[in-house]
Design goal:
The protein is an alpha+beta fold. Among the domains are: about 85-200, Immunoglobulin-like; about 620-770 and about 825-965, TIM Barrel. Helix content is about 25%, strand content about 20%. The protein contains 25 helices and 40 strands. Strands 1, 2, 3, 4, 7, 8, 9, 10 and 11 form a 9-stranded mixed sheet that branches. An 8-stranded parallel beta barrel has the order 21-22-25-26-27-28-31-32. Strands 14, 15, 18, 19 and 20 form a 5-stranded antiparallel sheet that branches. A hairpin with a 3-residue loop joins strand 12 (about 210-215) and strand 13. The model is unreliable at about 1-80 (pLDDT under 50). InterPro entries: GH, Glyco_hydro_13_N, Glyco_hydro_b, Ig-like_fold, Ig_E-set, Pullul_strch, Pullul_strch_C, Pullulanase_N2. It holds the Pfam family Pullul_strch_C. Belongs to the glycosyl hydrolase 13 family.
Length: about 950
């Protein structure tokens, strides 16, 4: 072993100025390069993903470079491979004693280098500028099992032993590199190191982090084991230029802490972290917010010292809210309505202007939007899923900085004009609109939705919103985005975590550069303290804001173990101790399996198939695609089960008639599996007449359709904020000559399929009122104009101009003639009818527990599909649900009112008759809700007991019930 070692004290000493004095930094804001305010998302080569935005290489480069997350240097021509090698981090320090590197040294040697001032450089003779040089010896046994389990993507790497006598904790604060040499001393290769493995082993921590309030003082805790120095600048006001105090924090085993007086409460602070940053190869003074911030100043410039237990931040009755929450007997009783905070009220003239687009709009008693939510709640909706409400980039918190377009001008333009989108795009990055999938700080409510983004207003108003929704009978789900962060690097104003422990929180590829498959700056929940932060954040929202559920964005990029621990931690919360009934908190998310985590390459991830048996829900894209046709990535005219495949062609080439018949039959199989909660082991008869289990029904690429083990693991949906709205996609895929009346019926038929399926139904806001975004397929940044919701029911927002060029230009030739045709636009009567029909199917769902069976076994025993096999009636699904009788052997009795239910979905443009011997001689009648329906068409449904024959009108869902004898 060769060892050249500087004294440990010199490795840890704070940076000094040219006179040798410790620096006192008075200005907390470093020079910043503003990151892109646009929410950029791209998903390639994966059929299951919702389309958000596929960005060009030029756009992606700009997005990445703004946050220093791609290769940070332009390498001069003629630079040798060795000279540029420290730009990479291809070796992994995976444990205290092992460095993994994919190199073969043969008879040569390998060395580890460290420089506390980041002075390392590479020449043909090796690395220079080090304070420490340590020889490493290869372990021929390879990487141990525990390392391979944690880092499966490097399981073939070679293992190099680190001498046990080293002060590793001190070395980890330095610039680090490894290099290999020939037996003759020539340098072969060199690279930097990735440190999460060794950091987890040496510095995993379960204690307090963030600002902790006691009666006497306020303590600050920051996990930053690679930092050389940490200071906190304390400000009395969010606009003060100079801090009232600069405090040096002390380190104990990677956690920096300090204690201050209670007079700090209400003040703001910013950390300055002196740390080596691999993106610049320098020791940087990074200015950052607290990752555990619970309050912020406008646009997250500073962290607010806010005590969430303070009585003045609690609305009246807040502490007793758990007792007021609407009851949920079982997660199977859940139905979800997805809503964007700004969409809810920005266009609502019954809301005072100062409340529009804000948390407080939900607290009104009789606004159009609140009255609409009351209707939905009364019909059966149980949960409001709010799109991101944490602090995100892309919308200025200060409303006075927003730009807008005169809506009077927009309203006078033709319905197929290019001008609306052109005007909106000029201000799209400076208006008040963005979906919010640009995470900056996970644990603080977004300031732009508050009446005042400074101080504690956002906390108080968010709580009032939750309380108001609960009192409407609606539980609240938060859309959480733990899979990526908007900023990275030492200078990006939206970077937080990557400034404090560079290279730890963000997942990196084999070259050491940040992975971007989720959009940008993927996080790594497989690292201990990343998971710790996620769990603590969830608990904070649950306890401090009393929310009732969490929807995980791109959940497949989070590890399964993290999701399981999250569920366990939340369910341990109790009313007595925490003021929250944790067992009633439901979690679900997008279980798409793609990118660097696909096929468990980074460990077992929280993808659809991996979550089987956890009770965690995931979105079922199979039913969406089978109903509508194709996928969001296929041809926009590809038809599906409800949009006219075979039965009413739209002119698109779907192949031969025989091919279309097979496609329609396969789509029905997929839908029926989904209607049985997408259960892996549910047995049904497929279109070939064969009895199969759900997982034996396959998609076009051979993937099993079914993945769930219990009904609450399946979220059935046909539309969401991603992609076109339901009404828009129906208008695009159905024949142009179809009447608007028929399109409205198809819209309702689609929502009724979701509403009457087993599992948990999920609806995008506006599904029930024919919502249109003028055929915009990705409205994340399309402003209020294209995202408008009208709860006066006078318009559905169809035909407000060609949708934004960026994501829709390729389909403009298809879109333009449809928008120009006035016959496509629904009238107010259509919208009102759609709402009543939607409320009817919800009332039907909640009229019987048979629509909400709680176990896989109950579904298998009670749910049957008829009209199956090779002689089926095309375009028709027939489902029956059977109940038992008190005191009679066999099925137990669940429903006191109905003993048998038959639901028939007729997607055909004509009336159909269906007869089944199995359904003969029953006392079936049309459901009383439909008998009283404002829809005269459904009242034409009939059943003849002697023949078991049902007659169902065109494009109609008919529900027949058998009442119990009284």
């Amino acid at each position: 072993m060769s060892l050249v070692l500087a004294s440990p004290s010199s490795l840890l000493s704070p940076p000094t100025n040219s006179n040798g004095h410790h620096r006192q930094i008075l200005t907390p804001r470093c020079n910043t390069s503003p990151s892109s305010p646009i929410r950029r998302r791209y998903h390639l080569r994966n059929r299951s993903l919702p389309l958000r935005c596929i960005i060009s290489r030029r756009e992606f480069t700009r997005c990445c470079s703004s946050s220093s997350s791609s290769m940070p240097f332009v390498i001069p021509s003629g630079t040798s491979q060795l000279q540029e090698s420290l730009l990479y981090s291809r070796a992994y320090w995976v444990s205290e004693s092992i460095i993994a590197w994919n190199v073969d040294i043969g008879d040569g040697s390998c060395y580890l280098y460290a420089s506390k001032v980041a002075a390392l450089s590479v020449t043909d003779n090796g690395i220079q500028g080090e304070d420490v040089k340590i020889q490493l010896v290869e372990d021929i046994q390879g990487l141990p099992e525990n390392v391979i389990k944690k880092f499966p993507h490097i399981q073939e790497y070679r293992a190099f032993r680190v001498p046990s006598a080293l002060d590793i904790k001190s070395l980890l604060k330095c610039q680090l590199a490894v290099a290999t040499f020939t037996p003759f001393g020539n340098c072969i290769s060199a690279t930097g190191l990735q440190l999460p493995g060794v950091l987890d082993e040496l510095f995993s921590y379960d204690g307090p982090l963030g600002a902790i309030f006691s009666e006497e003082d306020i303590s600050l805790y920051l996990w930053a084991p690679t930092a050389q120095d940490v200071r906190a600048s304390i400000y009395r006001d969010q606009l003060d230029v100079n801090p009232v105090e600069i405090v040096s924090l002390e380190e104990i085993n990677g956690v920096w802490n300090t204690k201050g007086p209670r007079s700090w409460e209400g003040c703001y602070y910013v950390y300055e972290v002196t740390v080596y940053h691999p993106s610049t190869l320098k020791i940087e003074n990074c200015c950052a917010n607290d990752p555990y911030a619970r309050g912020l100043s406008s646009d997250g410039q500073r962290t607010l010292l806010v005590n969430l237990d303070c009585a003045t931040l609690k609305p009246e009755g807040w502490d007793n809210l758990a007792a007021e929450k609407p009851n949920i007997h079982s997660f199977s009783d859940i139905s979800i309505y997805e809503l964007h905070v700004r969409d809810f009220s920005s266009n609502d003239e019954t809301v005072p202007p100062e409340f529009r687009g804000s948390y407080l709009a939900f607290t009104l008693q009789d606004s159009a939007g609140v009255l609409h939510l009351k209707k939905l709640s009364n019909a059966g909706i149980t949960h409001i899923h709010l799109l991101p409400t944490f602090q995100f980039a892309g919308v200025d918190d200060q409303k006075e900085n927003w730009k807008s377009v005169d809506t009077k001008l927009l309203e006078n333009l033709p319905p197929d004009s290019v001008e609306q989108q052109s005007l909106i795009m000029v201000v799209q990055n400076d208006d008040g609109y963005n979906w919010g999938y640009n995470p900056v700080l996970w644990g603080v409510p977004k300031g732009s939705y508050a009446s005042n983004p400074d101080g504690p207003h956002r906390t108080f108003e968010f709580r009032k919103m939750v309380q108001a929704l609960n009192r409407l009978g609606l539980r609240v789900v938060l859309d959480v985005v733990y899979n990526h962060l908007h900023g990275s690097g030492p200078f990006d104003e939206n970077s937080v975590l990557d400034k404090i422990v560079p290279g730890y929180y963000l997942r990196r590829n084999s070259d050491g550069f940040i992975e971007h498959s989720t959009c940008i700056n993927n996080t790594a929940s497989e690292h201990y303290m990343v998971e710790h932060l996620i769990l603590d954040d969830l608990l904070s929202w649950a306890v401090n804001y009393k929310v009732d559920g969490f929807r995980f964005d791109l959940m497949g990029h989070i590890m399964k173990s993290t999701m399981v621990r999250a569920k366990s931690a939340l369910h341990k919360l109790s009313k007595e101790r925490d003021g929250v009934k944790g067992s009633s908190i439901y979690i679900y998310g997008e279980g798409w399996d793609f990118g660097e985590v696909a096929k468990n390459r980074r460990g077992i991830n929280a993808s659809q198939f991996n979550l089987c048996g956890t009770g965690i829900g995931s979105f079922n894209d199979r039913i969406r695609d089978a109903m509508l046709g194709g996928s969001p990535f296929g041809h926009p005219l590809q038809q599906g089960f409800v949009t006219g495949l075979l039965l009413q062609p739209n002119g698109h080439d779907h192949g031969t008639e025989n091919n279309q018949e097979v496609m329609l039959a396969v789509a029905k199989d997929h839908i029926q599996v989904a209607m049985a909660a997408n259960l892996r082991d549910f047995v049904l008869t497929n279109h070939k007449g064969k009895e199969v289990k759900g997982f034996e029904v396959l998609t076009h690429d051979g993937t099993p359709v079914a993945y769930a083990s219990c009904p609450t693991e399946c979220i059935n949906y046909v539309s969401a904020h991603d992609n076109e709205t339901l009404f828009d996609i129906v208008s695009l895929k159905t024949p142009k000559e179809l009447s608007v009346d028929e399109r409205c019926r198809i819209n309702h038929l689609a929502t009724s399929l979701i509403a009457l399926s087993q599992g948990i139904p999920f609806f995008h806001s506006g599904d029930e009122i024919l919502r249109s975004k003028s055929l915009d397929r990705d409205s994340y940044n399309s402003g209020d104009w294209f995202n408008r919701l009208d709860f006066t029911y006078s318009s559905n927002n169809w035909g407000v101009g060609l949708p934004p060029k960026e994501k829709n230009e390729k389909t403009w030739p298809l879109i333009k003639p449809r928008l120009a045709d006035p016959s496509f636009k629904p009238q107010s009567t259509h919208i009102l009818s759609a709402l009543e029909n939607f409320a009817d199917v919800l009332r039907i769902r909640y009229s019987s527990p048979l629509f909400r069976l709680q176990t896989a076994n109950a579904i298998q025993e009670r749910v049957r599909f008829h009209n199956t096999g090779i002689s089926w009636v095309p375009g028709v699904i027939v489902m029956s649900i059977e109940d038992g009788y008190q005191g009679v052997p066999g099925l137990s009795q669940l429903d006191p009112v109905y003993s048998y239910i038959v639901v028939i979905f007729n997607t055909c443009p004509t009336e159909v008759s269906f007869a089944s011997p199995a359904l003969r001689a029953r006392a079936l009648e049309l459901h009383p809700v439909q008998l009283m329906s404002a829809d005269d068409v459904v009242k034409g449904s009939s059943y003849i007991a002697s023949s078991g024959c049902f007659n169902v009108p065109p494009r109609t869902t008919s529900v027949f019930v058998e009442r119990r004898e009284t």
